[in-house]
Design a protein that fits this description.
The protein has a single domain, classed as Deoxyribonuclease I, Chain A (4-Layer Sandwich), CATH 3.60.10. The chain contains 5 helices and 13 strands. It has helices spanning about 35-45, 70-75, 145-160, 180-185, 230-235, and strands at about 5-10, 10-25, 50-55, 80, 95-100, 105-110, 120-130, 130-140, 165-170, 190-195, 210-215, 215-225, 240-245.
């Protein structure tokens, strides 16, 4: 969806905007074929204003982007946030952010987090109309102990960003349990949404993909995007949430 707007004191203010998180499994679908165009088709179906991707780069070698920039710009309304990490990569340890054309990117950064496996976090400060929004994208460790450590670091950084305006965090938390250490760490500062089961995409059971938000945002809706294309395009389904300013 495109952000809906209202007029307040002569200013254009976003009434509702939509974010999404999607682990694209390096573009390899459940049919074991790598098809970037299929991923872009799913993103068009979801129709979010801001998207955080996981596994958006190949893991080895040059770690080139799974979704070439020219394909993104020719097949969607999105542009990648320029993280400037590696020439051929779109993200940082596979994490990337896409914004709809017309949304201004004011700043961006990569964050090193404590890890057992290669992990990182990406963040951007974007402006939707006159509203500044801090966005964090992440993919947490398979180890529960390391997930809790990572969540503590990310939650503290997100809480600091919250002082500058609304903040949303999203990604693949790799957490199967309903009550876990990483949830407790995030819960100190943010509300944790449960869009629904998103993994594996053919018969989703795990609620691995989550969206978190600060108290400056109010959720109007959230869910898991299920479609014939999404079931095949990756082993995860996209999750999404719509927000209003609180």
């Amino acid at each position: 969806m495109r952000a809906c707007w209202r007029q307040a004191e002569g200013r254009a203010v976003p009434d509702i905007f939509k974010v999404a998180s999607y682990n694209i499994h390096k573009g390899v679908g459940t049919d074991r074929r790598r098809d970037p165009a299929r991923i872009l088709g799913v993103l068009n179906e979801v129709d979010a204003d801001i998207v955080c991707l996981q596994e958006a780069d190949l893991r080895f070698g040059t770690r080139e982007a799974v979704l070439p920039r020219f394909l993104i710009e020719s097949h969607t309304d999105y542009i990648p946030v320029p993280l400037d990490v590696q020439h051929d990569s779109m993200g940082w340890h596979g994490n990337a952010i896409l914004v709809r054309q017309g949304i201004k990117v004011e700043s961006h950064d990569i964050i090193h987090i404590p890890c057992l496996e290669p992990r990182g976090v990406v963040t951007a400060r974007v402006r939707i109309g006159e509203v500044g929004l801090s966005v964090f994208g992440m993919h947490l460790d398979l180890s529960g102990l390391w997930r809790a450590r990572q969540a503590k670091t990310i939650a503290a950084l997100g809480d600091a960003a919250r002082g500058a305006g609304p903040t949303v965090l999203m990604g693949d938390l790799n957490e199967w349990r309903a009550s876990a250490g990483c949830f407790r760490e995030f819960g100190r500062h943010f509300a944790l949404l449960d869009p629904g089961p998103s993994f594996p995409s053919r018969r989703p059971l795990g609620r691995l993909d989550r969206i978190l938000h600060c108290d400056r945002l109010r959720v109007t809706d959230c869910g898991v995007h299920r479609s014939a294309a999404a079931t095949i395009a990756s082993d995860h389904l996209p999750v999404w949430a719509q927000f209003m300013l609180a």
